[in-house]
Amino acid sequence: MPIEEVEETAEAIETMEIRGAATIAGAAAAALESQAAASEATDPEAFEAELRAAARTLYQTRPTAVSLPNALRFVLQDLEGATVEELRETVLTRTRKFRADLEHAQERLGRIGANRLRDGDVIMTHCHSTDALATVEHAVDAGKDIEAIVKETRPRNQGHITAQRLRELGVPVTLIVDSAAHRYLNDVDHVLVGADSIAADGSVINKIGTSGLAVNARDRGTPIVVAAQTIKLHPGTLTGHTVEIEMRAESEVISKADREKIGEITVKNPAFDVTPPRHVDAIITERGQYPPESIVSLMRELYGDVDEEPWAEPN
């Protein structure tokens, strides 16, 4: 049975109180660390069963955000130890290493991505990505003047968070409604977005609206750059699995009162869409900058082929 901290973390991830791929991954690893530390299991099988149950609880919260299952894979894959204490120590060591690596990965990504931005560049952003912001932060620290056109990104208006963070960096910001993106692309040097998952073929799964923005950017000849740590790579796509697109509550789109006033309608609220690799110029990670078609090699290097997930119920 997962401990209370695991349940609370799962709820916070599901309700988006905890958001952002790296933050979600770190919180999941910390929850597994707490589960391992608190376990009162007396035999290794029971201990591993508790960890798998905790991991399943976490995994079910945000199916598209692959950083979450990647964190669980890192901690639970091929656990070593003949006793409960040996297994516990393995889990604690792995969770601490994962969180430490996570902390430094974004800084490395930011330094690499900043090289892509030139003094005087205007960027356009969509949604909120700490990886994308890291590239801007390092560019500003290097003395480059950067301006930003920020899409508000409905229905949750995550662009407002991006606008606030950019202003804290001293970046001049113009906030626009989502449907105005095409109008302002001629004023933009780079479209800079994050990713929730990246498939083996280089397809980018990100906040709904990214794909349309990429098509418009390609039409205008504006480069679209994706900033994403390697925890965003989806190893399941190496073996033919597709990325599940999360459908969120209709209450994010329309109030109950307005729904009743309009009458019987169907409301769809997909949280993400898929941008084909042909519309992406570069994917920036903490390992370097890659064209989309090279992502499969990086994915195999880091994750190999994924067979059974370590949180699955044993047969």
UniProtKB/TrEMBL annotation:
Catalytic-site annotation from UniProt: C127 (proton acceptor), D196 (proton donor)
GO-annotated molecular function: ribose 1,5-bisphosphate isomerase activity; S-methyl-5-thioribose-1-phosphate isomerase activity; translation initiation factor activity
EC number: 5.3.1.29
InterPro entries (alphabetical): IF-2B-related, IF_2B-like_C, Initiation_fac_2B_a/b/d, M1Pi_N, NagB/RpiA_transferase-like, R15Pi
Pfam families documented for this protein: IF-2B
Top-rank taxon: Archaea
Catalysis performed (reactions): alpha-D-ribose 1,5-bisphosphate = D-ribulose 1,5-bisphosphate
Binding-site positions, substrate: R19, G20, A21, A22, R62, N206, K207, K232
Matching Gene3D superfamilies: translation initiation factor eif-2b, domain 1 (1.20.120.420), Translation initiation factor eif-2b, domain 2 (3.40.50.10470)
The entry's keywords: Carbohydrate metabolism, Initiation factor, Isomerase, Protein biosynthesis
GO biological processes: L-methionine salvage from methylthioadenosine; pentose catabolic process
Family the UniProt entry places it in: Belongs to the eIF-2B alpha/beta/delta subunits family. R15P isomerase subfamily.
Stored HAMAP family: R15P_isomerase
The protein's role, per its UniProt record: Catalyzes the isomerization of ribose 1,5-bisphosphate (R15P) to ribulose 1,5-bisphosphate (RuBP).
Note: Reaction proceeds via a cis-phosphoenolate intermediate.
Protein name in the entry: Ribose 1,5-bisphosphate isomerase
Organism: Halodesulfurarchaeum formicicum
